[in-house]
């Protein structure tokens, strides 16, 4: 009893008890949030309760440790001055103030959610900075007085619970020799700080994992319950700095008259053709009913690394991609293709949902938590089985979380591979080696009902530019460190296609090969925009007659609006891309180049700042971009591109990613 009494009067159990009390208070906030918004966030089924509780604890952990990490450090400092009453009082004030502010955001969510249909994030805080922000803030306290009373009650619960009920009397181990108590206290400080950091990361501690993000909620629960699983102030803190800035070139009326990203039906077959270097595909290529779709997203396979796509590649130098070069001769290759974002995390929104990323990664924005009608969901309604396979952990890059929102049913990841084969093929940083994971993915595809749409994302062609031990020495170095692993991944693709060609579904499958983003170049002329964003986009299905080369400007955003009509879909959808086969559409690639918005259309490169068109260059006659010819730009074309950029920000801000959201707006 004496030992227990002494133990309870040390700082460690006190801080544990206070943090546990915070978890109870956060749970109460979530329960009240559910009671007030159950018709909007959905009701979890009994078999979903376990996953919901787990997700809630994960996001609450991130919120609590984010808010209290300063308190944890101050409370556990090893120095004796922390025992002083004045210092204890300062710590108490900081603890109550920080947690009271966090509770205010949590409780505000209870009432604000019905208007926004999403959790409060950093972009909502800007109202406070308005000239009338103080008046507005005060009025909200009065108008929503039940929330104000709840906030006061819970703040009082924090104070009385943590500093009256859970009381620290001071004098911890002062009788113990000074060096000993400093060592013990430093030990506990290190332990609790480490736990706090891991909690902030969402309990992800592997070298190949990423800190938890707002868009990761659907990875734990079904998308309909993701808003219930999320926790504030996690959403505010995690989205801080990811504010959607936007541009305004046109009035709303002009904007809607100039460009809307809504496709009500596919273009008629009679107006679809594709000019190739040696022939012409007339009419839309329609795939046989029940054709399978396999999208291969190649990590870092920028166009400059591919000899058959790079006109500056030394003719006498050996190719880094001999297999791809040979395969490109057997299908339809777009030679002027570009990525739809900046990094790997941007690839899947661009490919699955035709949503670009400009100066901010779309999946890092709070607005990415939304409802979508993406390509996987549309294909699911047509009877397709949808799957995503990636050799990294399930939490990597928010791929699984966004995949669930986009309509993907099945996921295969590093965890699934290691359940069968163990961790022996983990590359030590990112995931399972390509030449091991790709055959595993094929085995998993065999288990899927047909027709299927499967997306496979490779990962080995990345820094630290290593190849697996069992193939060490087989791939020579290139002029850049990445060339060795490009060679390795090309080899893995060759083995993949050799095995895939033996499958009964192979001839009935359209393969779409696309890179996620560029990754440098050995020729400095290709290190500048837009060349550093250039990638391959390739369609391979010999039985469909897709063969040749086309120099029409396209991007990842065009895959969805091209593929759906090929499969006979007339479902309306939202898209920032265009049908590659439609000659009446504007064929261009949009990105964020060199700190400005870039539009590449044929030979022309447009540059837009927040003020409008800043420059235009002819990349064929002026590849070094020395002559600004913006005065020669077509005003209607400039207006169209300005509307395109502005409409993107409006669409994201309003979370208008479904046709219904646009139809509702038109009705108003």
The percentage of residues in β strands lies in: 5-15%
> How would you characterize the largest beta sheet?
9 strands, mixed
**Tally of alpha and pi helices:** 20
Low-confidence stretches: none
Measure the end-to-end span.
71 Å
Shape: globular
Overall description:
The protein is an alpha/beta fold and 668 residues long. Helix content is 41%, strand content 12%. The protein has 20 helices and 17 strands. It has helices spanning 2-8, 11-41, 49-75, 85-116, 133-143, 145-165, 178-200, 226-229, 234-238, 252-258, 322-328, 347-353, 375-381, 399-406, 414-421, 434-446, 481-500, 559-566, 635-653, 659-667; strands at residues 262-263, 273-275, 280-282, 292-298, 332-338, 385-390, 410-412, 452-457, 509-515, 534-540, 548-550, 554-555, 573-574, 589-593, 596-601, 604-609, 612-618. Strands 4, 5, 6, 7, 8, 9, 10, 11 and 12 form a nine-stranded mixed β-sheet that branches. Strands 14-15-16-17 form a four-stranded antiparallel β-sheet, covered by helices on one side. A two-stranded antiparallel sheet has the order 1-13. Strand 14 and strand 15 (596-601) form a beta hairpin. Helix 3 runs antiparallel to helix 7 (178-200). It is globular.
């Amino acid at each position: 009893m004496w030992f227990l009494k002494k133990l309870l009067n040390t700082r460690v159990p006190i801080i544990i008890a206070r943090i546990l009390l915070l978890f109870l208070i956060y749970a109460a906030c979530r329960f009240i949030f559910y009671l007030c918004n159950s018709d909007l966030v959905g009701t979890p089924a009994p078999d979903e309760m376990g996953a919901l509780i787990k997700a809630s604890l994960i996001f609450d952990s991130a919120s609590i440790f984010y808010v209290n990490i300063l308190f944890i450090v101050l409370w556990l400092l090893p120095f004796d001055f922390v025992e002083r009453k004045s210092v204890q009082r300062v710590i108490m004030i900081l603890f109550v103030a920080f947690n009271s502010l966090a509770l205010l955001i949590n409780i505000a969510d209870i009432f604000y959610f019905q208007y926004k249909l999403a959790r409060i994030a950093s972009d909502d805080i800007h109202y406070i900075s308005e000239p009338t922000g103080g008046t507005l803030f005060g009025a909200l306290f009065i108008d929503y007085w039940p929330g104000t009373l709840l906030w006061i009650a819970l703040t009082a619960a924090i104070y009385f619970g943590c500093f009256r009920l859970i009381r620290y009397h001071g004098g911890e181990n002062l009788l113990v020799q000074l060096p000993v108590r400093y060592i013990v206290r430093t030990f506990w400080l290190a332990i609790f700080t480490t736990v706090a950091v891991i909690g902030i990361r969402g309990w992800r501690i592997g070298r190949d994992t990423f800190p938890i993000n707002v868009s990761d909620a659907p990875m734990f629960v079904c998308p309909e319950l993701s808003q219930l699983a999320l926790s504030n102030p996690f959403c505010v803190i995690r989205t801080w700095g990811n504010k959607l800035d936007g541009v305004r070139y046109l009035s709303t009326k002009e904007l809607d008259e100039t460009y809307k990203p809504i496709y009500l039906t596919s273009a008629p077959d009679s107006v679809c053709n594709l000019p190739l270097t040696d022939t012409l595909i007339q009419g839309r290529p329609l795939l046989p009913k029940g054709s399978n779709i396999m999208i291969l997203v190649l990590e870092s396979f920028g166009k400059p690394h591919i000899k058959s796509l790079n006109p500056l590649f030394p003719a006498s130098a050996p190719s880094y991609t001999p297999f791809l070069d040979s395969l490109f001769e057997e299908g339809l290759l777009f030679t002027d293709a570009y990525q739809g974002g900046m990094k790997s995390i941007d690839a899947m929104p661009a490919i699955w949902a035709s949503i670009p990323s400009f100066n901010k990664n779309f999946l890092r924005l709070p607005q990415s938590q939304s409802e979508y009608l993406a390509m996987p969901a549309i294909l699911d309604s047509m009877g397709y089985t949808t799957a995503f396979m990636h050799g990294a952990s399930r939490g990597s890059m928010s791929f699984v979380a966004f995949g669930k929102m986009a309509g993907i049913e099945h996921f295969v990841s590093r965890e699934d591979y290691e359940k069968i084969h163990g961790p022996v093929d983990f590359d030590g940083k990112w995931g399972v080696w390509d030449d091991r994971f790709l055959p595993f993915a094929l085995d998993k595809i065999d288990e899927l009902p047909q027709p299927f749409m499967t997306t496979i994302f490779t990962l080995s062609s990345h820094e630290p530019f290593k190849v697996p031990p069992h193939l060490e020495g087989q791939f020579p170095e290139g002029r850049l460190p990445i060339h060795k692993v490009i060679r390795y991944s090309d080899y893995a693709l060759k083995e993949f296609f050799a095995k895939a060609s033996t499958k009964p579904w192979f001839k009935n499958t359209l393969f779409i090969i696309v890179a996620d983003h560029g990754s440098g170049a050995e020729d400095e002329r290709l290190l500048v925009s837009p060349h550093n964003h250039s990638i391959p986009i390739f369609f391979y299905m010999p039985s469909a007659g897709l063969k040749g080369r086309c120099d029409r400007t396209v991007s990842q955003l065009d895959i969805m609006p091209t593929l759906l009509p090929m499969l006979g879909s007339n479902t309306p959808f939202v898209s920032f891309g265009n049908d590659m086969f439609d000659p009446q559409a504007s064929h261009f690639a949009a990105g964020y180049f060199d700190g400005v918005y870039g539009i590449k259309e044929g030979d022309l490169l447009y540059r837009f700042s927040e003020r409008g068109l800043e420059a235009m260059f002819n990349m064929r006659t002026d590849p070094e971009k020395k002559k600004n010819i913006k005065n020669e730009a077509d005003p209607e074309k400039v207006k169209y591109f300005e509307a395109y950029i502005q409409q993107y920000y409006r669409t994201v801000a309003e979370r208008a990613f479904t046709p219904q959201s646009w139809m509702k707006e038109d009705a108003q």
